[in-house]
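Now read this:
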Amino acid sequence: MIGAHGYCTQELVNLMIFGRAYSNVFDGSKRIGSIKDGFCVLQGAPRRASVGFLSLFEAYKCIEVGQRLKCPLSPVWIVCAESHYTVLFSADMSVDPRDDTCAVELYYFDQLGRQSERIKLTVRPRSLPSTDVDDFTDTASESMPPRRENEASESMIDKCIRTKWANASVDWNGTDVIL
């Protein structure tokens, strides 16, 4: 359950969340293969979790985190960003984690970052224009999707948040943005 470079594997994270070491983060199970060759069953999140999970790898379209992990029972999310895990949570337990349309205030905590101050984020879903593009255009990039003006300087945490709250603006409320 310890992967390359001493990193925690997804199985270990899922063991802590579900009490069982599932390998994937999509909802339910998926069969791959054929009847002729035999099926391989991949197991993801079996039910709605107590705490959620968001991943930078989903922002990069490498994985798909299912709704069972994006919409946990409590407003707490483990965040996999780059090489370690952090946490986002709401101090208001009345926040419905299934609601991805209302603004929400979240606290961000990164033990490895040795943060000395509280980091409070205000997430406003669907408040970013989806068609903002850079001033620079190039014929080679015409087939690429448009980028937001600030995408290059976007925080990896902002990108993780947007996997749950579509086109959300993230206000770091005066604290330094953690890139």
